Amino acid sequence: MAAIVPAPSAGLAFLGMDDSVRLALIVLLGIGFLTLLQWFPGHTARRRRHPNAGAINVGGWLWLVVCFLLWFGVPAELRSIRDLGLLIAWGVLVVWSFTGSEPLARPPPPRGVTVRQSSTRNRDEPVITDGPGRYRVSGVDRESRLDTTWHCVADSAANAKIKAELEGIIVSDVEWVGD
Question: Is the model's pTM score more than 0.70?
Answer without folding.
Answer: no
